[in-house]
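Sample A.
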Amino acid sequence: MRLMQNTERDPSHSKESLEPHLPSQIEQENPPSSTASPPGGDALAATQVHSTTPSESLATDWTAQADPFAETRAVNLHSQSYAANDAGLDATVASRVHLSQPPQGQPEQADGLAATLPTRLAAAARAEQAESEDQPSELPLSTELGLLATQAPAELVGDGTPPPPGALFQSKGKASHPLRWVMLIGIIGLIAIAFLSAFAGYASGIQARKAAAATQAALMAQEQYELALQEIAAKDYERARQRLEYVIQVAPNYPGAADKLAEVIFEASITATPTVAPSPTVSPTPDLRSAGERLEAAKQQIFNSQWQAAIDTLLLLRKAEPNFQPAVVDGLLYLAYRNSGRDKILKEANLEGGIYDLTLAEKFGPLDTETKGLQNWARLYLLGASYWDVDWGQVVYYFAQVAPAVPNLRDGSGWTATDRYRIALGKYAEQLLARKEWCAAMEIYQQALSYGGDQALQEGYNRAYDRCIGEQIPPTETAPPAEVPTQTPEP
């Protein structure tokens, strides 16, 4: 109402049109027809479309580019917009009216067209009508008029009907984006809640398992501690110590376990243990004879072939009187060690002991050839025996040297060098048969049979002989039958 009153009182404002004009339109307008208006005229006359003659209007419309906002505006203000807060902008519909034909100048058509033009006066009239119908508006009148004045026009559809509201307010489609973000945030929140719930359940399970293990360990520690106390009372400190160490390992902070362990260790250390009395060492009866008497006794022992007794007598004499006839004493020691070594090898079958005595005899003088050879045969015998059941080829190699020289040389097993050589030859021949070396096996069997054999050696020799001779004899070739010439009868 305030806007309408200001317009009616101020003639200068009533003469101005609310339609924006382009510069080209301002130059082509007819001042007498477009701006002349009586000062006391109708208030709605300022909103009417002024045109002079049909020819001038037609010329103006065809020569100037019409502003889409300056041609026509239609605002449809619904009364329901004053009842709801969110229907302020939906109540207005902007449309555009195209002037397909120049105006004919009829007053009725001009008045009808002027009635459809959106102006501030029309909006004020509608607002006054709404107030008269007791429909309160939640927005101030100035705000509503501002919204009406700034409402963007829209073109009519081809048949003159206004477009649907969704076409005018395309920005409403953007309202779905916040909802989409809300849904996305909700899904992410649900996933996070599920993950946190699973993690919390897993952590709870781990804690429960640890608690159960701790409870079981405490029960085991208590049981072992009680058993340890019983064993301490029975003075079985070793078993008690083991149980207490287990208790401390399972439950380091078990009350009293460390103190009891220290007590058990102390008691075990002071417990009297029976000591075994060492057996008295038998010492030889001291020889009170003189050095000369000892020397004569040693000579008599050597003459009686009491080699070990002579060695003991001479060693005591040398220890007691180192400077008493050292050359004679050393000579007697040489004879005693040499003869002792020979007897151990040939008579006692103690090859290791005989080799040792002969080695000691070499410290007092060189050995003779026979004794040195005997020492070497004994060493070869021991080397060949060390390969027994391991490498029959090596056994054959060593005993092939010992058996011809000392066939009766034997060790503690009672097997002579000849027996070992024959057995080794048979085993080695079997290996050659397994490798299909028939001729080599036949030769080895022949050597074994030369030292005396048994039925197994003879059968092996026959098999090797058959295979070896069978490969050497070439197959006999049969001569083709002689061709006998046939005589052809003469005619």
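Sample B, a different protein:
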Amino acid sequence: MALILIMSLALPMAARSFVVDLKPRQMVLRVGDTQHLSCSAKDCTESATFMWTSFEDKPLSGTIQNPSALESLLVFDPVSTAHENLVVCKVSCGHELKQQHSTVKVYSFAKDPVIRGNDPMLMGEVNTLTCEVPEVYPPEYLEVEWVQGDSVLHTDEGKADKSTVLSRYEYTPTPEDNGKAITCRARHTFEGLPEDKNTKETTVLMNVRSPPRNTSITVSPAGEHKEGESVTISCHTDSVPVGRLVLRRVSGDQTVDLQSSPSSSTSVTLPSIQLGAIMSITVFITMMLCFAHSPGAHPLEVELNPGVGVITVERGMSFVLSCRALDCPKPVFFWKSPLDATIRSRSKTKGNLTELYLSPVELKDEKAYTCEVKCGSVVKSKRTELKVFSFPLDPVIESSGAHIVGEASTLRCDVRDVFPAERMQIEWLDEEERVLLLEEGSLFSGLQNLTSELTFTPGWAHQGRQITCRASLQVEGLPRNQTVRAAVTTVALSYGPRNTSITVSPAGEHKEGESVTISCHTDSVPVGRLVLRRVSGDQTVDLQSSPSSSTSVTLPSIQLSDSGLYRCEALNEHGNETTSTQVIVKAPPRNMTVQVLPSSEVLEGQNVTICCKWVSYPPPAVILKKPGNGTELYSPNGTFLLVNLMPSDTGLYQVNVTNDLGFETEVFVISVMEKQSSPPPNSNDFIFPAIAVGALVTMATMAGLVAYNLNQARKRGSYELTKTTPQTA
């Protein structure tokens, strides 16, 4: 009973599995803070092993701490944009492995917007207000609004490649705008951002300046005046800021200042107006002039060349920015640029023109430039922004190796000295301008060398096809020849020998003594080696070896010994291929020899074997005759057996060897000596029985054996003397 109880408790414990607890599962972190992810192994009864990895194709950043055997922390201190990732915590408990993942998102929105251009503003002219929001991430989620009262005047959005979001708003102020408030409101729309931290705004007052206007002069009482009357002459003007009013009397060539006042109104009273020494009022004319001056309203104009806005310049070029002051006799120039203390030393001023020299243009010259001109108490400025790009060289295409049919091949396209790299786009195109691969550069602060790789598996259809690597720098305002460069490569396949062939000329069978050419051809890249061999029996002879795609050998007078198998082998570094053909040479019988064994002189009753040898193809028919007898014996192999010879068998014998090209005949003598102890035999018994027996055997098999051997010889392509049982005669 106790055993059963223990088992019932142990089984559930064995089946229980541990749990990976990763907290939090989703994080939105602010740059600069300190945060961490916690990964723990719950219900793990053994030693736990933790491993932190990245699910995305980017390195994992952070510091790992293990406060206990069952818990691990990934600490972000301080949080940076590099910590944005899909983080995976893998836990091994005993033999079991489990994992969980957490999404880590990062934002930066630490500083309030900064407004510039509001102080001073010139009335009636287009003024550019700028709102700058620094250190924003991700910047493409930032919305910038210009607000006045309840009205939204202008809206901009951030760009993904700029951490500082800059919004420009062109505003033409009126006198009523002086002292009014204008607001730049920045709102970060990044998902997960707390509501109380997603909006920042800055409000400034507009300081509008205007030259004197609506200037007027009045005389009271109006009309003509009698001598002795009291007359008041008043002068009024509108200007911001308040300037100085000067009231003068001009009489002939004399000018007398009557009143000068730092205000918008002034007057002078003549208590008893006099005509003076001149009695004829019709002869002398007195003019009263009112001059209004504003210390901030000199008619100064500033011209910036090439112009205001954004100017794009190529790195390494010479660039001159000129600033001219108009309607100012003695202007004072100031060049200003953020964090550039050397800017003054790079400028030259002469009269009303100053020039800033950037030669050669470097990446550090990419910034805003302001030309400020002071004319008396009037100060005006013009601003432009310089953008620098670098794209001096065409792409260069390189191959990782030979393009082999059916095997993966890689092309690499290198684009050097690029800036800004994040604006570079590299496309791989086929001959039909279809995009095979498109890649973009990444954010980088300096010159960068970019590389794009195209991997493909070439087939026969790729041979001779062109592939283009086109690099495009996405910069506005530049002609296409400065922003688009391309390189082209032609696919040249490498492959082992194919379509290897061997030919014999003339074709067909050949007669001995003819001229015969044997040729070998193959197709391979690169060109390899061709070897032409003759194989006869177990012997192989190299006839020709050539490092080319074609080779041949000519036999000017082909012989029967040249018959055999001819083999062509093509080989290069990618493989080999072999093909062969049979060459058959025909010749009439020749070099015939006849041998009689054991001797051509034998005793009565003995047997002899006649062996015939020759050279010919196709195999001939072999016939043995005894002239005058009329009997013919046939042998498929040139061997005859004459048995039980008698003295009457003595005489001449003739062997005739014949094929379709000719024949050869050999005559020899056989002598049969009579035995002395026996009565002379009947001459009719001397050869005819043997011949009859031999003829029956030979003639019964001759037709079949000759046909068989002829057929076998043709199949073998050569004639060989066979070693068969001699023909019995």
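Observation for Sample B: The CA atoms of residues 598 and 608 lie 6 Å apart.
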